[in-house]
Design goal:
The protein is mainly alpha-helical. It has a domain of 27 residues. 57% of the residues lie in helices and 0% in strands. The protein contains three helices and no strands. The chain is elongated and about 75 Å long. InterPro entries: Cbb3-typ_cyt_oxidase_comp.
């Protein structure tokens, strides 16, 4: 088997894989998942409540805005 035959076999396998993935991705069973993923940018983010007061949050920061002496 020479290089040309091997390249031909690899190309055929890649084309079959591409067609298989395309059929899988556009199948009707995947439509609900894609519709849900398409709505994700419009979903509201949950509100995160921080239990750390602002004074303590400043203590925990690495850069407190002051100059290093």
């Amino acid at each position: 088997m020479d290089t040309g035959t091997l390249n031909g076999i690899i190309i055929i396998l890649l084309i079959v894989a591409f067609i298989g993935l395309t059929i899988w991705a556009y199948s009707k069973g995947r439509r609900a998942e894609f519709d849900e993923a398409a709505r994700l940018p419009f979903a509201d983010d949950p509100i995160v409540e921080h239990d750390t007061p602002p004074e303590r949050a400043a203590e925990n920061r690495h850069d407190k805005g002051g100059r290093k002496a």
